[in-house]
Write a structure and sequence with these properties.
Length: 95
């Protein structure tokens, strides 16, 4: 099971980024873990739980002083059955 980012953009709504993700793996399973979004050196974490094979938008706070950011780096850590983590990452451009 692994969480992947569905597109290279995230929509900004207020002080939050809406990030599209998909859980890749068995439809009987669930992707769960945390997403860390780094914007201008500030890290924000959000937990997730997405059913296998489905897509969802995660809400991650991004408000930080110093004006509007144009992009951030997202890293998902998905818990595996053996207790390890699957890691995926991507650069997200904010709109």
């Amino acid at each position: 099971m692994s969480l992947v980012f569905t597109r290279g953009t995230a929509h900004l709504v207020g002080g939050n980024a809406l990030v599209g993700v998909k859980c890749v793996g068995s439809r009987n399973g669930t992707c769960s873990g945390t997403v860390t979004l780094t914007v201008r050196g500030h890290k924000r974490k959000a937990p997730f739980s997405v059913v296998g094979g489905s897509t969802q938008s995660l809400v991650i706070p991004v408000a930080s002083p110093g004006g509007a950011a144009v992009r951030g780096v997202a890293v998902a850590r998905t818990v595996q059955a053996a207790g390890e983590y699957a890691r995926s990452s991507g650069v997200l451009h904010f709109r």
